[in-house]
Recover the amino acids of this structure.
């Protein structure tokens, strides 16, 4: 390994990417665009709920209850249904996420202190949203119960769960999405830069020239790793800056541990990128190969669903996913102020992933040499 | 085209020739697909992999949430309440006696929430009319899990109160109870709505990403110009590209369908006919997008970036596949209206879980059809300009 040779290779690689206007544009704008659109789109929150109401009672209590739904900020449109027959088309045509049905003697039962029932019909096609809407409705009814009990001077059931959320007291979804997107976008950039740089040279035949030059495969590997890490790190800095200053995501932990984890994360991502490109001969294969890696890596990262909910074998498989480890670290550092030693405890597997993938890439490049 | 008396012989011959030309182009494109390893990857391996992975990995039915239960009160009632957390499938609880034990766990993500049963718990419970507060401290860094943990804790509490009241012979009744019932997906299994939606992702990959790449490569290598210099018309070229990839997409759709039905046992209440019709319309719109991208990009790298940005990511984020469009801000909701996958996902969920509700399917098919026409029209226009 000669540093001067690697340095020359690094400069050549950086120039190759940055000199081309189209690839410069592709590197800078799409990630920022994705950050903006998808941080608002990737939300499990349910707002602007449309609710149909079938009030067969029409009494005082029923009107009161419906008013509480109308007054809740989560339900933006509450409309009345003409009759039983209107329920199916309303739900089927997705005109409402849920339908509230109040039976005929509801107000009489409430006035007499008899247990009264209301029904909530939900659209199971949107299963996650249905559960959340159910939670909202449950809360509104509980609060109504508490008020009824107070009015009647009766002792209702003590509704007493005191809910607190640490690290994100208002459960702002952006605080979850934006740190995750830092990881996801950095991964996309790191992979595309590495995979394509090798594949393009292979397709044009210049990679063979590199292989027969005095450079050793290890030097070539280093010369491909370092520029991708520089570009990826630079990009991730733009994203982190946007996250903190535009999206106002708090960063309670130390920026230094964030940078350290980013570098190690990029190292492992570039390792995967080089490994994939060592298997591919054309750009098309490299793009599709990268894609085939990116999809499962995203699914298994814990971005979409918590890893604990996955079956055992996928939990084990997810250990090989660099994004999985980094997401824990980035959320821990930014939102929870995870101390550096704990960060190390989270990110050390990235080093192993990097070493394994780079070794494999090196082996495949060498094999190409023979 | 034809005169009232029927086509004249030269017109007939021209039509036959055009058809043979078309058949030849379709055959050539078909061979190209079969011989290209990357179309096999995208057309067969990726749909299988993605459907299996999504089926196993994307599970929005959160249970066994790891929590720490802090028992500051050691009375039998408090211990009984703590046991209620151990006995539900929604939580994987560990019991401790000091909340500091779990604080580091919460920070490191080893537990998702801490349930604190305070010293005053049983005393407050004994006093009539007094509420006995307990606290649930959830890890807010994953808001969805936090909300579920809070809701589940509320559920455990209500059930425990009910059992306790029954044990004392008293009835525990609330003035108003809300009974939720879920239509189309009674047990609220998230897989039942996720897997049908996932088919949209696979068809988008074939229609937009693969097609854009292949055609961009032809532009890059100059074989597209060579084709356009032959007597083959632009329209025939377009059809020649559409037909083979259309068939590849429909094949992938049937593969996804079999895995969804056979491995994951998702209900299928509609008809295969409806599914084929709706998928066909969507496939044309995805192909239209792919061809349009390649006619603009003409370079594989840019085509790949553009189709990931304009086709794959919107299909994943904006279609209602995982994320609910109702929760998004207005500009993004409007943007989702021009994403064909949004209409397709809605149709898929309806066909699988509701049935052939044509009243719901028609407007969605109209939306996809308009998008398809727009992209195909733009592609034809673009190709013409490039040659001129």
């Amino acid at each position: 390994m000669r540093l001067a040779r690697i340095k020359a290779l690094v400069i050549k690689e950086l120039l190759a990417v940055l000199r081309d206007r189209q690839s410069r544009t592709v590197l800078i704008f799409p990630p920022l665009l994705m950050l903006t659109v998808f941080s608002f789109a990737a939300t499990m929150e349910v707002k602007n709920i449309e609710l149909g109401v079938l009030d067969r009672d029409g009494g005082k209590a029923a009107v009161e209850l419906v008013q509480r739904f109308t007054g809740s900020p989560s339900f933006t449109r509450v409309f009345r249904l003409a009759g039983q027959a209107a329920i199916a088309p309303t739900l089927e045509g997705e005109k409402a996420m849920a339908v509230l049905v109040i039976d005929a003697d509801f107000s009489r039962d409430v006035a007499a202190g008899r247990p009264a029932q209301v029904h909530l019909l939900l659209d199971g096609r949107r299963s996650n949203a249905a559960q959340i809407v159910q939670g909202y409705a449950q809360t509104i009814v509980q609060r109504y119960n508490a008020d009824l009990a107070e009015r009647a001077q009766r002792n209702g059931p003590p509704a007493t769960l005191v809910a607190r959320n640490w690290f994100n007291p208002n459960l702002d979804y952006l605080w979850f999405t934006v740190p995750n997107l830092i990881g996801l976008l950095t991964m996309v950039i790191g992979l595309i830069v590495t995979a394509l740089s090798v594949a393009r040279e292979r397709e044009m035949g210049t990679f063979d020239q590199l292989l027969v030059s005095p450079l050793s495969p290890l030097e070539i590997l280093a010369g491909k790793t370092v520029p991708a890490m520089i570009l990826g790190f630079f990009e991730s800095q733009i994203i982190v800056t946007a996250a903190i200053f535009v999206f106002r995501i708090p960063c309670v932990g130390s920026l230094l541990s964030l940078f350290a984890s980013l570098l190690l994360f990029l190292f492992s991502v570039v390792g995967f990128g080089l490994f994939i490109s060592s298997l591919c001969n054309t750009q098309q294969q490299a793009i599709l190969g990268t894609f085939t890696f990116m999809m499962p890596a995203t699914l298994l990262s814990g971005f979409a669903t918590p890893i604990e909910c996955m079956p055992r074998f996928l939990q084990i498989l997810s250990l090989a996913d660099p994004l999985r480890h980094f997401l824990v670290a980035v959320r821990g550092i930014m939102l929870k102020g995870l101390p550096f030693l704990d960060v190390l405890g989270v990110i050390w597997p990235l080093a192993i992933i990097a070493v394994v993938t780079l070794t494999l890439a090196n082996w495949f490049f060498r094999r190409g040499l023979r | 085209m034809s005169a009232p008396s029927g086509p004249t012989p030269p017109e007939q011959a021209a039509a036959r020739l055009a058809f043979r030309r078309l058949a030849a182009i379709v055959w050539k494109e078909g061979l190209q697909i079969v011989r290209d390893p990357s179309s096999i990857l995208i057309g067969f391996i990726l749909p299988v992999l993605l459907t299996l992975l999504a089926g196993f990995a994307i599970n929005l039915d959160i249970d066994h949430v790891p929590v720490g239960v802090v028992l500051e009160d050691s009375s039998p009632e408090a211990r009984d309440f703590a046991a209620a957390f151990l006995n539900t499938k929604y939580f994987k609880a560990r019991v401790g006696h000091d909340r500091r034990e779990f604080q580091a766990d919460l920070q490191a993500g080893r537990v998702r929430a801490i349930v604190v049963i305070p010293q005053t718990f049983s005393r407050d419970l004994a006093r009539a009319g007094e509420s006995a507060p307990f606290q649930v401290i959830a890890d807010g860094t994953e808001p969805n899990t936090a909300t579920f943990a809070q809701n589940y804790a509320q559920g455990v509490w209500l059930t425990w109160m009910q059992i306790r009241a029954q044990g004392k012979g008293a009835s525990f009744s609330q003035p108003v109870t809300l009974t939720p019932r879920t239509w189309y997906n009674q047990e609220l299994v998230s897989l039942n709505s996720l897997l049908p939606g996932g088919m949209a992702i696979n068809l988008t990959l074939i229609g937009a990403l693969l097609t854009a790449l292949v055609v961009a490569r032809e532009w890059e290598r100059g074989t597209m110009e060579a084709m356009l210099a032959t007597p083959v018309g632009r329209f025939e070229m377009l059809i020649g590209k559409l037909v083979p990839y259309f068939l590849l997409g429909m094949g992938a759709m049937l593969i996804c369908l079999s895995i969804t039905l056979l491995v994951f046992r998702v209900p299928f209440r509609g008809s295969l006919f409806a599914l084929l019709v709706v998928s066909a319309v969507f496939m044309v719109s995805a192909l239209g997008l792919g061809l349009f991208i390649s006619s603009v990009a003409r370079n594989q790298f840019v085509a790949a970036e553009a189709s990931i940005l304009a086709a794959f990511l919107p299909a994943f984020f904006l279609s209602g596949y995982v994320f609910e469009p109702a929760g998004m801000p207005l500009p993004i909701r409007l943007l989702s209206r021009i994403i064909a996958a949004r209409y397709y996902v809605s149709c898929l969920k309806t066909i699988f879980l509701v049935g052939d509700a044509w009243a719901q399917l028609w407007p969605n098919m109209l939306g996809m059809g308009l998008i398809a026409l727009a992209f195909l029209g733009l592609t034809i226009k673009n190709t013409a300009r490039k040659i001129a």
Notes: The beta strands of chain B are 65-71, 91-96, 113-117, 134-139, 176-183. Residues 30-58+189-387 of chain B form one domain.
